[in-house]
């Protein structure tokens, strides 16, 4: 899954952008009440472990 596809799913689930970090954007999930970092490379494929971790933090898994 590409970063842009993940962000669309996260936004649909209620997650929202909080701030820009040095290398990553910071998002917040009201479902899990956790912050998670997302790479700014929108067209880049996410590695399986990274995607799995981000999905859990976003409350999508």
Describe this structure as you would to a colleague.
34% of the residues lie in helices and 28% in strands. It has 61 residues and is α+β, with helices and mostly antiparallel strands. A three-stranded antiparallel beta sheet has the order 1-2-3, with helices on one face. A hairpin with a 4-residue loop joins strand 2 and strand 3 (34-39). The mean pLDDT is 95.
Helix and strand topology:
Blueprint: H1 3-12, E1 16-20, E2 24-29, E3 34-39, H2 48-58
Antiparallel strand pairs: 1-2, 2-3
CATH topology call: Metal Transport, Frataxin, Chain A
Q: Tell me the CATH superfamily.
A: Hypothetical protein
Radius of gyration: 10 Å
Percent of residues in β-strands:
25-35%
Q: Specify the overall morphology.
A: globular
Give the helix/strand class.
alpha+beta
Query: Sheet bearing the most strands, described?
Result: 3 strands, antiparallel
Helix content: 25-40%
Counted beta strands: 3
Task: Fill in the keyword field for this structure.
34% helix; 61 residues; 2 helices; alpha+beta; 28% strand; Metal Transport, Frataxin, Chain A; three-stranded antiparallel β-sheet
